[in-house]
Amino acid sequence: MKIALITENSQAAKNGIIHDALTAVAEPLGHQVFNYGMYTPEDKASLTYVMNGLLAGILINSRAADFVVTGCGTGMGSMLACNAMPGVFCGLIIDPTDAFLFGQINDGNAISMPYAKGFGWAAELNLQDVYRKLFEGERGLGYPKERAEIMARNRGILKSLKAVTCYDMLTVLKSVDQDLLKAAVAGERFAEYFFANAQDEAIRAYIEGVVAAA
């Protein structure tokens, strides 16, 4: 699985802590981690939580990433922005129990975490425990087990509902404020990671034009 890490500007100083915790768990399990930044508060390209959501939408819908790990001070803003995107199903995750239940019941493709609120002693251990509950073993099995069938059915209904209430991602890209879009894809390593992994040719071509015009 290709996992994208996205960090917004207010929490950019913690990118290294988050990235280290994520790779320590995900890479031994055979997953690839792509750190889209921000890397430091001084980065030239600054990501707001709104841009986190837009970037998550681009990565998931182009299949440049299979899963997005993001967040902000409370985790709320990035979660809302991600869920505004077609095809992105993002949970607000605070602790390992949240991660386990989200993986088993909702089986989404993105999480948002609080990196300021409650981020104290042993925060890096909580991050590792969360990622372990997310990425170890099979997801979507349901909890409790006897409700697995109805949970799977509800996930399908939710996907169908979102498909009719959201525009497709290419339409979103063409309709959104183009300066906002340019800022969202202006990260230092965005082009390197995205163009090597994107599989949707229409989204890839549109973003190529945006990057070239920036």
Question: Explain this structure to me?
Answer:
This protein has 214 residues and is an alpha/beta fold. Helices cover 51% and strands 10% of the residues. It is built from ten helices and five strands, in the order βαβαβαβαβαααααα. The chain has helices at 15-26, 49-61, 76-83, 96-106, 123-135, 148-165, 169-175, 178-184, 190-197, 201-213, and strands at residues 2-5, 32-35, 67-72, 90-92, 110-114. Strands 2-1-3-5-4 form a five-stranded parallel β-sheet, with helices on both faces. Strand 4, helix 4 (96-106) and strand 5 form a beta-alpha-beta unit. Helix 1 runs parallel beside helix 5, helix 2 (49-61) packs across helix 8 (178-184) and helix 4 (96-106) packs parallel to helix 5 (123-135). The protein is globular, with a radius of gyration of 16 Å. The model has no long low-confidence stretch (mean pLDDT 97).
Q: How many β-strands, per DSSP? A: 5
By secondary-structure content and strand pairing, the structural class works out as alpha/beta
Question: Approximately how much beta-strand content do the residues carry?
Answer: 5-15%
Helix content, binned percent: 40-55%
Q: How large, in whole angstroms, is the Cα Rg? A: 16 Å
Give me some keywords for this one.
globular
Give the secondary structure arrangement, pairings included:
Blueprint: E1 2-5, H1 15-26, E2 32-35, H2 49-61, E3 67-72, H3 76-83, E4 90-92, H4 96-106, E5 110-114, H5 123-135, H6 148-165, H7 169-175, H8 178-184, H9 190-197, H10 201-213
Parallel strand pairs: 1-2, 1-3, 3-5, 4-5
Helix pairs in contact: 1-5, 2-3, 2-8, 4-5, 7-10
